[in-house]
Design brief:
Largest sheet: 5 strands, antiparallel
Number of helices: 5
Strand order of the largest sheet: 1-2-3-4-5
Order of helices and strands: HHHEEEEEHH
Number of domains: 2
Oligomer: single chain
Radius of gyration: 20 Å
Helix content: 40-55%
Length: about 170
């Protein structure tokens, strides 16, 4: 299922057919919880996350997005009280939990993205030094990549309490 299908179809379905939830002993998600889940899905889509393996309703009327990769599973849980949690499990044991109600990703994910950006940036510099400029197909792709890196570094600096300045300031 694509992000767009999740946003346009799957999540709105949770607001319909309340009998389905009653039959399963589940609370139906409220319109507010569905709205929060759609906002979260849009944010994750924009940030480049793969669509989740599952999108389900919890027994209390919350909505859970789940991913699995080997022994690691992650979830974003829009709880019935409107709070949003990020959870990471290793072999079914909870190893990380963050309140991301403000739709702010956990620091570990931000750091992973920054590390990947640094590696790609190093690769790009090596290509430039060797006289080849084939890592990016066009200027727009370069500009987009540099903008993403810039935003990630700025967010990381802010969250760690540093103030970034541009050259010449």
């Amino acid at each position: 299922m694509t992000w767009q299908e999740i946003i346009d179809e799957r999540l709105p379905e949770f607001g319909q057919d309340s009998d389905r939830f009653d039959d399963d002993g589940l609370e139906q998600p409220s319109e507010e919880i569905i709205r929060l889940a759609i906002a979260l899905a849009e944010k994750l889509k924009i940030k480049g996350y793969e669509p989740p393996a599952r999108v389900t309703v919890d027994p209390n009327g919350g909505i859970v997005f789940e991913w699995r990769q080997g022994d690691v599973s992650t979830a974003y849980h829009v709880r019935d009280d409107g709070k949003i949690e990020y959870q990471r499990y290793l072999r079914a044991k909870l190893v990380e939990r963050w309140d991301v109600t403000e739709l702010q990703e956990p620091l570990s994910e931000l750091l992973s993205r920054v590390r990947a950006s640094i590696l790609k940036l190093n690769e790009y510099v090596e290509y430039l030094e060797s006289g080849y400029d084939t890592i990016f197909t066009d200027l727009q792709e370069r500009a987009t990549f540099l903008n993403v890196i810039s935003c990630d570094f700025e967010e990381l600096a802010n969250r760690l309490g540093f103030k970034l300045t541009t050259m010449g300031q």
